[in-house]
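Quick log. Single chain, no ligands specified.
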Amino acid sequence: MRFLDEYRDGPAARKLAAAVARAATRPWTIMEVCGGQTHTIVKYGIDRLLPPEIELVHGPGCPVCVTALETIDRAHAIASRPDVTFCSFGDMLRVPGSRGDLLQLKSRGADVRVVYSPLDAVNLAAAHPDRKVVFFAIGFETTAPPNAMAVWMARKRNLRNFSALVSHVLVPPMMTALLEAPDNRVQGFLGAGHVCAVMGTSEYEPIARRHRVPIVVTGFEPLDLLEGVLRTVRQLEAGEGAVENQYARAVRPEGNPASRRLIEDVFEVCDRKWRGVGPIPASGLRLRDEYRAHDAERLFAVADIETSEPAVCISGQVLKGLKKPHDCPAFGKECTPQTPLGATMVSSEGACAAYHAYGRHHEPRTARELPLLPLAGAPA
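-> predicted structure:
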């Protein structure tokens, strides 16, 4: 496929992996932040292509995964009301709360609908003034602009029956929390290209300087990630900690100024609890007071709902880069994509779901136990 095959070229991938092997003189642990990057790494066996000195660990970069269990339960409490039409993207419908998921609520008669844009929910509220339409607004900085636009538009159109249940999380505070944890293993980051396409790279500069850690913003294809690893290793070997932009075809240092202004107009920074990780100060977004008439958490008085994760789940350690999915005793047994127990199995972008999909049920004794998915130009 044009403009994709170029970034999945087998010979080029092997040249980059060989360059990493030449550059690495000691072990290094690098975390890819985004769940989409994790999926590519596991699908194509990128981690198996790298030399043994380089370990890739998987960060809390799947927005579905890190949405707190309390927030899921709040969504279910709202969606269960007979006067509510609850709207969500499809990836949240199977995420389990304490008592089932949104699809199960829908099967029992709740008015739960999949939308393809937050503005679909706004238009639904305009068309049905007798219903309370609630949109489930989750995600990283990537989805914040369209979700902010929906709330801004509802206020402009005076749609008092539209509200948003907001659970946005921010990447830079999460990275800082990981680096400052006493058990941290991460020495370099592959940054999420789509987040930086919105927010730019300036927020990462102080993190890289303060912790002397390389942060290389990358795309999502095999060659993007391999080049990102190479740049990270070269910095680590030189004792440097700087921000680099491998994904220059999509990311500008300033990001998207119009989107950033919209986010700042509608949202303000708040503390946020991350599923599997716990509370991280100043790591989330909530609606500003000017938009309180569209704040579902306030309107439906669900803020006090609290719950706890299954004790057997080690997703928090996976999200922090301390464990791999196949280290969990429940992985592939009690916990599967059909019966997920924890954060990293609830979405196809989660590390556990990716490992399950591509047969990573154990740590291979040799790389030959797990063949690479053929890259473009490579023999099948």
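The longest strand covers residues 278-287.
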